[in-house]
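User: Round two. Same drill as before: sequence, then structure, for each protein.

Assistant: Same drill it is. First protein:
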Amino acid sequence: MRVLHIVTGLASGGAERQLQLLLRHLPPHQQCEVLALTNPGTVATALRAEGFTVHHLDMRGNRDLGALPRLVRLVRTGRYDLVHTHLYRAQLYGRLAARLAGVRAVVSTEHSLHAGVIEGRPVTRGVKGLYLAAERLGTTTVAVSRQVAQTLHAWGVPPSRVELIPNGIDAARFRRPEAERAAARRRLRAELGLPEGSWVVGGIGRLVPGKRFDVLLEALAGLDRSTRLVLIGEGPERAALERRAVELGVRERLVLTGERDDVPELLAALDVLAAPSTEETFGLGVLEGLAAGLPVRHSACPALDELPPSAAPQARRIPSDPTAYATSLRELRRLDDHTAGPLPHPPAVGHYDIVRVAADLGALYDRLARA
């Protein structure tokens, strides 16, 4: 089976990293290629290094209608059995191109949809209308959480067209012998310039307003001066966060790593993961923190909301407020035992293991291809 994944871009965001993980674990008889409409960033480089074919359409913007004929030709020439689209622009152009090219099985994963927000942008009447028109061109829409599925249903997408397949995490990559983890922790702390004995709070994600990393900066200002904040990711809010850190007098205690492809290793350098975003449709970073054996403080994680509290006892939900984060982190530090090592994997990590998730998606591909 030949499968083409069409994605808006391949920078190191959550949806892009999720696609990379899926491609590594889908059944071997499903031969996958990837097409980025624009911005073939670090994930494209990594996929090519792993042996995947990555196409780049070089689309100039949302209204670059001239890209559609090129996309149709590429899909038709590739003789794909199934097309799978990811993210809003790719969903609009990719579904239409697949239909015009004669592909019968067209899947789309909805990674980031709320009632009034899609991928961090307000949902206008026009955006919603285009979304629903494109959705009808597909075969199945995959929701990454029940929250997303419920939003799709509320928008009028029939339940029969929605398949619930959550995001996954590469649990095996986070399991490391304690001596190896300790060595990585020392090396990465030195690389990041973290003083010996510092207590390190971390955040994962694109530097965009919806992640609310400014909440962590303000909380940092109220914490002991030996506390450091490490933000793993890149994005348009970087300069604003740096300015705010200067205003708060904590710039020397903030570390911005930029895009990294060694997130599991970087997490070993942290003492706690904090996730103040209130706009999550899944909460991948929270699960990665749990897989790394960290205590987690978060404000939204639909993935955990769908499981009993016992599935992640080291995770605590708190309001997305600087005072709440400062108070919770201060309490956690008093309890922290640096000699105890990582916390054990909670049941939530096994539930969302990428091996299980990819098997479910592969079964969906096979079912649609036979229809």
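Second protein:
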Amino acid sequence: MRQTADPAETSHTPGLRAIPPGLHLVSTPIGAARDITLRALDVLAGADVLVAEDTRTLRHLMEIHGIPLGGRQVIAYHDHSGEGQMQRLLGLLADGKSVAYASEAGTPLISDPGFELARAVAALGLPMSAAPGPCAAICALTLSGLPSDRFLFAGFPPSAQGARRSFLEELAAVQATLILYESPKRLAALLAEMVKTLGATRQAVVCRELTKRFEEVLRGPLADLAEKVAAREIKGEIVVLVDRAPPAEATEDSIAAALDLALQSMSVKDAATFVSQTLGVSRKIVYKTALDRSQG
């Protein structure tokens, strides 16, 4: 998700603590420049080496907050960086340098090339920490009004129609709120396919331009959202959220099968409670069935 910033933001006076050696993953604003944390600014001010998915974006963010480069290296690391660039960064870390990595906008590793770098650092056992902060997926979930106790970030869906349909079919029964990123050019096609694969009445939310001037949140059944989006031109960064799948209706056979499995490792009482909660069925009914099956 791309950051946009207002040059009028106030500057930050960095802390005096030295930044310890290792890779420091720095979350940057997805829109409003003031959403950056003080800790993130301290890391950017004090790290030996600065690494960014987009060096121009990072330089601009540091200018807004009054963080000087002070002659430090600013190294680009993105999807098209080769193995040589990876080895260069690992070498700096092995030499005991503090390296700050910032994504173009948002939390590093969330649809971000920093994943490969972080995985390599972890594999070598080198020190690594994170300065947490903005994330479009979490911001959208917070605003959505959909259940947040369990959610699945599914990233960007495939652009090809057939692959996108298969992708959605795999997610259709997931018992969690689904979170996806999408291009505004493909949003209408995605919602239309969601109506077919997930159901017209399933509740969904489309968040656009989060934390920016033209932020917009659309809520409603998938069919209604698909109709609204198809009738207008959509621009900006998009997050799509869909409510979890409705629980499958329990049958006598499904209750019996679940109990047979649960009774292999649980008492009758615990098995009845577990199956009742899992299938959304009256515990009294399940307990009676459990007693019958345990005595049979």
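Residues 5-9 have pLDDT under 50 and may be disordered.

User: Perfect.
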